[in-house]
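cron nightly-structures :: item 1 of 1
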Amino acid sequence: RGGMYQITLPDGTKVWLNAASSLKYPMSFAKNERKVILVGEAFFEVTKDRARPFSVLSKGQEIEVLGTEFNVNAYPENESSKTTLITGKVKLSNNSQSAQPVYLQPGQQSTNTDGGDIRVGNVDTAPFTAWKEGMFYFDETPLSEALHQIGRWYNIEVRYKGNVPQTHFYGRIKRSKPLKEVLDVLEEGGLRFELSKREEKNILFVIPLK
């Protein structure tokens, strides 16, 4: 939590890990495959190797590629996993035996809910990769999702006082800004925040305005 990391895998593939994420990979890949396990969110620039397909296992799905750039958002607390393709082509399959694999083209995003079919749609990829460039990018982003992103980056636990407002946010904010400046922007959406520390945890309380 509270950081972003960039690593280079044994085959030269570059991976950026968002906050509160982990990647498991071998010290050296096998002769016939390259397989990693992701929890959380990461951006991949995969080195081409037709003899060894590259696979990402994440929260009930598997992504197979040869050489491409894509983003995977598969945090455990999310209702679904989202894979956003920037360049190349990927094949996705999930743990449901009845579901058919799908193929993504650049500019498409898949949404995979555990046990359900994989849905595919065209998207503006910028909001889903802006974290890699040090930005929060909100584009009709629900309050709960915006605060998940903020909580992971600033290492705070988010709690709500009263009902969770059905608010959406728009705009871009640098992640290098102090937390207070980010919250000041969000308060324009009709919210109030209180920050406290309990049992060594920084807790952000969200309070709807009456």
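cron nightly-structures :: done
The mean pLDDT is 89.
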